[in-house]
């Protein structure tokens, strides 16, 4: 049992590590001739092609793809929110702001959206810890918008794009749970299929462009690491841990993203942005906290049965 927990924790942390690589790889691709729309489109298209190739040799994936066909309308909605909105606006945000700021604002907005929409559409009841987390989250998002060590409030284009991406991802999580879509590579296959179709339109609108030879390794890395690898590690971790435990470990993603940005891009959050980042992390961990139920003594149960 202990070994299962360790394996699950490692897989969940690996998923966070892989997902944390999106920002630095995207920033690297901006130095080529690719626009943010092109990066989003090619990343999604490559992931779709890789899973399609894997499906040719795996009958289990083929079967799941056929079974999910009847859920096309729900898959189209989720793909719009979780692939088009998230990928397009997140990638665009990296053109204007530091990786760490984009990730923290995206994560915070996603958590806020999930909190509010989960209560409305999923009828989720909120406990005291989640309400405290909501207050900390709003405070953290406000502090992230303050200048480097000053009390001046600023709102950049990158911030707006990160907020839109976070709202899309938060709605995607709510919709996926509402529609009860089961995890698996077949599900990712449909998401990347419809996502590629959605992303094709802004890609063409900004001007059709083919990647240069040196851009292919980074595009393939984006497709394999966060898009496929991150999802695979998450679903595997669910075989060993409870869903809330997996989510707890994957909340380390902004920490990995910040470290990658500092080491490879020399980017660093400053001033009140640090306080905002800490409050956002604290808010999400507080919201995910599950108090242990007090054990009922056996003799009390026996007395109740006698009554």
Automatic annotation (TrEMBL):
<comment type="similarity">
    <text>Belongs to the EamA transporter family.</text>
</comment>
<keyword id="KW-1133">Transmembrane helix</keyword>
<dbReference type="InterPro" id="IPR037185">
    <property type="entry name" value="EmrE-like"/>
</dbReference>
<keyword id="KW-0472">Membrane</keyword>
<keyword id="KW-0812">Transmembrane</keyword>
<feature type="transmembrane region" description="Helical">
    <location>
        <begin position="215"/>
        <end position="234"/>
    </location>
</feature>
<feature type="transmembrane region" description="Helical">
    <location>
        <begin position="70"/>
        <end position="89"/>
    </location>
</feature>
<feature type="transmembrane region" description="Helical">
    <location>
        <begin position="153"/>
        <end position="175"/>
    </location>
</feature>
<dbReference type="Pfam" id="PF00892">
    <property type="entry name" value="EamA"/>
</dbReference>
<feature type="transmembrane region" description="Helical">
    <location>
        <begin position="129"/>
        <end position="147"/>
    </location>
</feature>
<feature type="transmembrane region" description="Helical">
    <location>
        <begin position="101"/>
        <end position="122"/>
    </location>
</feature>
<feature type="domain" description="EamA">
    <location>
        <begin position="7"/>
        <end position="144"/>
    </location>
</feature>
<feature type="transmembrane region" description="Helical">
    <location>
        <begin position="187"/>
        <end position="209"/>
    </location>
</feature>
<feature type="domain" description="EamA">
    <location>
        <begin position="157"/>
        <end position="285"/>
    </location>
</feature>
<dbReference type="InterPro" id="IPR000620">
    <property type="entry name" value="EamA_dom"/>
</dbReference>
<protein>
    <submittedName>
        <fullName>DMT family transporter</fullName>
    </submittedName>
</protein>
<feature type="transmembrane region" description="Helical">
    <location>
        <begin position="39"/>
        <end position="58"/>
    </location>
</feature>
<dbReference type="GO" id="GO:0016020">
    <property type="term" value="C:membrane"/>
</dbReference>
